[in-house]
Amino acid sequence: MTEKITNIIAETLCIEPELVVPDARLKEDLGVDSLDVEELGIELEEQFDVSFPRDAMQKCETVESVISMVQMFAKRERPLAGEAKELLR
């Protein structure tokens, strides 16, 4: 999942993948602005079929924090999807 997230970050922000390392700071190191954050949030939601508050994305300061957030919301939503399948049976 980590590699997929870093690839999405690189592609969405049009930056070299080598720059997208866990300790890279979004604003200071990667030049991310608030519009970039919104675009990245939308892309991550689509790619991982998750939903998270936009302010959660705005609070991410590093690549690692983005990875952690996506993983947290993905884990939170997977059981719900499983529960929904059980209800539909």
Description:
By secondary structure, the protein is an all-alpha fold. The protein has helices at residues 2-13, 34-48, 54-59, 63-88. The radius of gyration is 14 Å and the shape is globular.
Key descriptive features of the protein:
single chain; 89 residues; mainly alpha; Non-ribosomal Peptide Synthetase Peptidyl Carrier Protein, Chain A; 66% helix; disordered C terminus
Any chance you could write out the topology, listing elements then pairs?
Elements: H1 2-13, H2 34-48, H3 54-59, H4 63-88
Short recap of the structure:
Helix content is 66%, strand content 0%. It is an all-alpha fold.
CATH T-level fold name? Non-ribosomal Peptide Synthetase Peptidyl Carrier Protein, Chain A
In total, the number of strands is 0
Total individual domains: 1
CATH superfamily assignment? ACP-like
Strand content: under 5%
Give the name of the CATH architecture.
Orthogonal Bundle
* Low-pLDDT segments, ≥5 res: 78-89
